[in-house]
Specification:
Elements lengths: L1 E8 L11 H11 L3 H9 L5 E8 L2 E8 L2 H12 L5 E4 L4 E13 L1 H10 L6 E10 L1 E3 L2 E3 L4 H15 L8 H10 E15 L2 E14 L3 H17 L12 E7 L4
Antiparallel strand pairs: 1-3, 1-5, 2-3, 4-5, 6-10, 6-11, 7-8, 9-10
Helix pairs in contact: 4-7, 5-7
Length: about 250
Amino acid sequence: MIASLKIKFEYNEDIKINNNLASAFHGILMENIDTNYAEYLHRSMVHPYSQFITGEDNCVVWNINTLDTDAAEKIIKKLENDSFDRADIKSKNVSLSVISKECDQISYDDLMREYYLDGKSSRYVSIRFITPTSFKSNGKYVIFPTSKLILNSLARRYDTFSGDTGITDVSLSEYIEEHTDIVEYNLKSVKYSLEGITIPAFIGTAKIKLAGNREFICLMNMLIKYGEYCGTGIKTSLGMGAYKIIYTGGAIE
């Protein structure tokens, strides 16, 4: 099961709404979940959740997504509870009161059915990176996206948390490289500050073209939708790599 929780906090003039707030909210998340589970998350290589900060009506909006049932139980349900009614930003000595909470969920079966089996898919998908995004390859940061980097990142997360519906193999990775491409983009480089470290990254829009057979195009559409929950690239649990689909078009035969 994939679950999402959107928490809106009251406006406070002492808080500047920006992406770097996600690091502080990650600390708040860890403080509000079970200690043993928090230790498990610290040890895990691929995290079963993503979280990031956006602004809405001058309010801080905390977006949390979990990628399996265990994480939904131990993270979403904890934060959805009425007992979580404020966020203490210790670095700013500010406490933000909760205004509202919205929760939603979708199963992996439903995601697969909607995009892969029922064919709700397009040859072109445009996405907007709403928080700084970066990849790492051969030990170096990659601050310009490729369709291969984006889609392989999503496929790895999908395989890790979807249970018995794994999709990744060597041939799929090769097929992604041969049959997908970024055909339009409007990107700019940015820096993401994290605990004294500056990570080179990018934000903006990219349009992905999907070629190949119908089965492959449907699979890629599903993965791109999945990415709205899991994010792509590095440090998605700390506020990076969040994006939204802004356009789909181009019928498939």
